């Protein structure tokens, strides 16, 4: 698998890609370990209308490539993630009752490290994993994610992003109601699909405000417990949205004793760039211990290839 960056790609933002001269997979790994988010790769002998076809190469792609040849990484791949020292503390965490806005700085850090933000009922004393908010999940929601972040708590945002780009009307009602109460009428345009710069934007927001009392009533009638309800806080999602929350809470998890290859299989199967490490005893809920990122996995495999072959 040879990689050669195209010279005309220098204008692509470095936050998302690295456009340097690469000749091997290991050089691609070094680029990711050096901070690249993804690589732009021209497909050799592939042309369309006189232009060379390009593709994105991500950390997931490289991990999947190594997984297909995992026998070459024995016995490292069979060792536990704890023994290999790839379990990092889960520092990117937010309490379910906190505002979703408070998670924005954490999301920026998660994007840089190819991970996500863990949602827990409370930050102290013990952290139980409720779900995760990932940059990729927010992207699937489109512009409505911005309105949801401005209006909802972190726990309620879990349920919203669980619907992807097609949240039910009940979920949109809850977001609109909270935006009106906070006088964020401009954010309503993101939910109604109106261009904020157009003259009809303000009229759409004002006309929608006439039904705010109806939305408030709908929200009160459909309230259910949020992930932080055990600590006395009340959520605002309806029973119909519970399915979305369950989908968002289905974070990929492993144990300290899980092997490196098992973590790779989990991550690639769920198209995730990380796996949460939890401790779960009989009769108790899973407690968040740390996180294993695919970057950590690639670093271990890179080190394995640098070792001299056994005699």
UniProtKB/TrEMBL annotation:
Q: Does the keyword Repeat apply?
A: yes
Top-rank taxon of the source lineage equals: Eukaryota
GO cellular component terms given for this protein: cytoplasm; nucleus
Q: Which keywords does this chain's UniProt record carry?
A: CBS domain, Repeat
Q: Where is the composition biased (Low complexity)?
A: 195-212
Q: Where is this region: Disordered?
A: 195-241
Record keywords: Repeat included?
Answer: yes
Q: InterPro entries per the record?
A: AMPK_gamma/SDS23_families
Q: What is this protein called?
A: CBS domain-containing protein
Organism expressing this protein natively = Panicum hallii var. hallii
- Native organism taxonomy: Eukaryota, Viridiplantae, Streptophyta, Embryophyta, Tracheophyta
């Amino acid at each position: 698998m040879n990689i050669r960056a195209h010279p005309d790609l220098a204008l692509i933002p470095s936050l998302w890609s690295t456009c340097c001269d690469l000749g091997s997979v290991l050089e691609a790994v070094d680029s990711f370990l050096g901070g690249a988010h993804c690589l732009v790769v021209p497909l050799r002998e592939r042309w369309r209308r006189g232009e060379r076809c390009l593709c994105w190469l991500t950390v997931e792609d490289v991990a999947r490539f190594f997984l297909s040849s995992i026998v070459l990484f024995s016995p490292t791949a069979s060792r536990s993630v704890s023994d290999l020292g790839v379990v990092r503390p889960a520092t990117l965490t937010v309490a379910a009752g906190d505002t979703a806005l408070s998670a924005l700085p954490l999301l920026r850090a998660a994007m840089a490290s190819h991970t996500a933000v863990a949602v827990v009922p409370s930050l102290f004393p013990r952290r139980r994993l409720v779900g995760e908010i990932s940059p990729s999940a927010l992207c699937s929601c489109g512009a409505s994610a911005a309105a949801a972040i401005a209006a909802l708590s972190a726990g309620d945002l879990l349920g919203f992003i669980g619907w992807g780009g097609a949240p039910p009307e009940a979920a949109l009602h809850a977001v609109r109601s909270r935006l009106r109460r906070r006088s964020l009428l401009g954010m309503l345009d993101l939910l109604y699909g109106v261009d904020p710069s157009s003259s009809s934007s303000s009229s759409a927001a004002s006309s929608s405000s006439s039904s705010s009392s109806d939305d408030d009533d709908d929200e009160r009638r459909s309230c259910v417990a949020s992930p932080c309800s055990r600590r006395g806080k009340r959520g605002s999602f309806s029973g119909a949205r519970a399915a979305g929350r369950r989908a968002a809470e289905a974070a990929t998890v492993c144990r300290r004793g899980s092997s490196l290859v098992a973590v790779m299989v989990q991550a690639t199967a769920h198209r995730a760039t990380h796996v949460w490490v939890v401790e779960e005893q009989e009769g108790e809920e899973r407690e968040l211990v740390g996180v294993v990122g695919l970057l950590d996995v690639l670093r271990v495999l890179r080190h394995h290839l640098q070792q001299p072959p056994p005699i």
